[in-house]
Amino acid sequence: MTLDRIDRKILDILQRDGRIANADLADKVGLSASACLRRVRTLEEAGIIERYVALLDQRKLGRLMDVFVEISLTGQSQETLENFERAVARSSEIMECFLMAGDADYILHLTAEDPLDFERIHRDHLARLPGVLRMKSSFAIRPIVRRTAIPLDGGG
What we know:
Elements: H1 5-16, H2 22-29, H3 33-45, E1 65-73, H4 78-90, E2 94-99, E3 106-112, H5 115-124, E4 132-139
Antiparallel strand pairs: 1-3, 1-4, 2-3
Helix pairs in contact: 1-2, 2-3
Organism: Roseibium aggregatum
Pfam families: AsnC_trans_reg (PF01037), HTH_24 (PF13412)
Protein name: Lrp/AsnC family transcriptional regulator
């Protein structure tokens, strides 16, 4: 699907305010409400708009730590990778998981309340992941930039 200027503007606005009323969105992009809704539905059906979510402030919910865990696996067989990825997908404690090129096979991002909570997560979730040869955890001191909006016009 090719995105035009209006599609990009719709996406930009929705990334910043997913709860905006269609009439307000239409007004901001210069379309009628029905034309705007058709465009949003097309973007949803094409999978460009994947889903709508509420972003929570993890610190206000007591999740004060961000932890990044580098994982090296025992091997690179399809079965080893699939077993690991299935287990990661089942763990609600793991916020993000990326297959990597470089020293680590995967990098996991998780949040924890404090070091004791991380110990629990490590014991109950990370230590049970299949095919793990080595884990290296790094604790973030504080976030500097956290974005959820993908730049649509070259990053301005």
